[in-house]
Amino acid sequence: VHKVTQASIRSSMGYTTKSPKWATAHKFPAQSSVARLLDIIVQVGRTGAITPVAILEPTEVGGVTVQRATLHNFGHLQEIMGFEESDENGVTAKIPKYEPLLVQRAGDVIPQVVRRIKSSQLTPEDSSETEWISLDPPDKCPFCSSPVTYDTISQSSSSAVGQVVRCSGPPLLCPPRAVTSLKHAFSRDAMDLTGLSEARIQQLMDADLLKFPSDIFTMDNAQWESVEALSGWGKRSSQNLRDSTEQVASRGISLGRFIYSLGIRHLGKHTSELVASCYGSSGAFLKALGSASQQQITEAD
């Protein structure tokens, strides 16, 4: 880690909300390996971003066995894959199954695909027998069937590189987004409920005990007994969670924490506090939210 040693310069450079500006990490070049592509699946994040993920033959990269690697977004995916031409089925981007890819662990942590290593050219006879994997983005969310929208990261680029495909449906009605949205709402910087991991939230959702954040605060005795009976819970874990919810309900949370718990895009912990300071009270915030038109809310998003 490279650091500025002079105190006066450190003071003038200051801090971001997460780290000092006067220190930066110097990382060694990432180690890479060649892995064969088995499939490309998609995963949906809390904000609705649909990210393509490469499923690979198990390959050791820097001492770790890698079977999945991120492809970032569909524009980047098509650029690094050097996709084939369209066919009679209307597939405009595709790649042969088992094609070799160069894979590395970014920052020695996150596996990512660097580029495609093209194998020998396929003859027309080989092409008809080859299994192909589509590189086209979906036109609807594969989990909730909501239409997708496109965000462009790089306005200077005329290509599709930088475009993020997003699920446009309500977060709590899209299964993978619902889990991560609830986890965010219950996190330490939001409602601060202890004892609720992502896996446990999924358990509660599967048992029809949790769908919206408010559900955890309105459970009756019979529902808490159902929580206790879930695999891996028990009486103590259930009681600890119940105590935590009762404590949060009795003391309440600040308006900044409440706004942060909503999981609004581009509103982090610090900016949520700034928004809260503009309204002053939860009543004023909810009144303004209730009087806002649907168009204003959509434009703000």
TrEMBL record:
Protein name, entry field: NAD-dependent DNA ligase N-terminal domain-containing protein
Record key words, sorted: DNA replication, Ligase, NAD
SUPFAM superfamilies, A to Z: Nucleic acid-binding proteins, RuvA domain 2-like
Protein's organism: Pseudo-nitzschia delicatissima
GO biological process, one term: DNA repair
InterPro entries: DNAligase_N, NA-bd_OB-fold, NAD_DNA_ligase_OB, RuvA_2-like
An annotated Gene Ontology molecular function: DNA ligase (NAD+) activity
Gene3D superfamilies hit by this protein: 3.30.1490.70, 5' to 3' exonuclease, C-terminal subdomain, Nucleic acid-binding proteins
Domain NAD-dependent DNA ligase N-terminal span(s) in chain numbering: 1-190
